[in-house]
């Protein structure tokens, strides 16, 4: 079975209205994603993430992917955890893949949401801020919803952070 290692970020930003989190609306269903159950959700929202490049540490990948997919510069606060699953590639040889995605809590530093390179529009339809307390309900993937809950715990001062 093939293996893939990815990393992503939960980017938070404190505003007068409360904590906001950066999410993306993928351009289309990524081949590495598990199928999403049909819901009344109008748009599919996800956290920014991507494959770890050779020689790169997962935390570096998370920061890079956030910049590429959202237009935001962020700094590392804490590791939130890993999501592990298997999927079958829908292209090439239909190979089964074991995937690990490490997620990090990141603090917004600078940049404007959705100001991304034109070539990233192949992957990302748009990036947007959503209130942190709504994010778990609005995200499409269960593991990512769990990472939002962990981020909320961290921001409330949980010990594991």
SSE arrangement:
Elements: E1 2-15, E2 18-26, E3 49-51, H1 58-70, E4 72-88, E5 96-111, E6 124-131, H2 132-138, H3 142-155
Parallel strand pairs: 1-5
Antiparallel strand pairs: 1-2, 1-3, 2-6, 4-5
Helix pairs in contact: 2-3
Walk me through this protein's architecture:
With 161 residues, this protein is of the alpha+beta class. Helices cover 21% and strands 42% of the residues. The chain has three helices and six strands; from the N terminus they run βββαβββαα. Strands 1, 2, 3, 4, 5 and 6 form a six-stranded mixed beta sheet that branches. The longest helix is centred in the last third of the chain and has 14 residues, at 142-155. The radius of gyration is 15 Å and the shape is globular. It starts with a strand and ends in a 6-residue tail after the last helix.
Supply the helix-strand structural class. alpha+beta
Distance between the termini: 33 Å
Main CATH class: Alpha Beta
Largest sheet entry: 6 strands, mixed
Mean pLDDT: 91
Point out poorly predicted stretches. 30-41
Please identify which CATH superfamily we are dealing with. Answer: Nucleoside Triphosphate Pyrophosphohydrolase
Instruction: Indicate the overall shape.
Output: globular
Supply Rg.
Answer: 15 Å
Range of strand content: 35-45%
Q: How many domains?
A: 1
| Strand runs, count | 6
Q: Please, how many helices?
A: 3
By CATH, the topology is Nucleoside Triphosphate Pyrophosphohydrolase
SSE pattern, N- to C-terminal: EEEHEEEHH
CATH architecture: Alpha-Beta Complex
Helix content: 10-25%
């Amino acid at each position: 079975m093939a293996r893939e290692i990815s990393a992503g970020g939960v980017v938070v930003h404190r505003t007068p209205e409360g904590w906001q989190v950066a999410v993306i609306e993928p351009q289309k269903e990524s081949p590495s994603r598990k199928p999403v159950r049909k819901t009344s959700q109008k748009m599919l929202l996800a956290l920014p993430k991507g494959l770890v490049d050779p020689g790169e540490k997962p935390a570096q990948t998370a920061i890079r992917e956030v910049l590429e997919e959202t237009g935001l510069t962020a700094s590392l606060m804490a590791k939130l955890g890993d999501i592990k699953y298997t999927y079958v590639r829908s292209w090439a040889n239909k190979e089964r893949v074991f995937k690990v995605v490490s997620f990090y809590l990141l603090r917004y530093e600078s940049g404007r949401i959705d100001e991304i390179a034109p070539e990233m529009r192949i992957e990302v339809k748009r990036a947007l801020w959503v209130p942190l307390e709504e994010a778990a309900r609005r995200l499409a993937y269960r593991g990512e919803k769990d990472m939002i809950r962990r981020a909320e715990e961290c921001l409330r001062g949980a010990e594991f952070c």
